[in-house]
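User: Here's a chain of 137 residues. Predict its fold as tokens.
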Amino acid sequence: MRFNLCVGNNDSHAKNLSVLQAPGGQYRLAPFHDLMGTAIYPGLARNFALSIGGEMKPGAIGSEQLEAVARELGFAGRNVRAVRSALTSELLRALALVRAALSGQALAGTERTLVERLGRWINTNTQTLAKRCGWQP
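Assistant: Prediction complete.
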């Protein structure tokens, strides 16, 4: 959920997540798929596909809504806080690495523009969300 909020994936559905069962019977999340920043594209949904703590407008989703979902799912508060901090800082670090790697490639003008625009959008949105929720990026 937080990742989708940060990257502007308003089209995130539960169907984008899968669970794998290991031979020992333990469960884990499968690698994510169909994750993209839809918010930068005109004409695509502006609201989140799922209600998060009763809210579907990404700009109105904050700590209260995220903590409500965590409680509903039975997650301990301390674990949720650790994950959100790690996600925010790791996402920004990974974004910088990806942007640097892509800048070294020979991208066409429109590709370069999209990479730059998406990178700026994710960076700004992640930092805005972190400030709104009181997280440390």
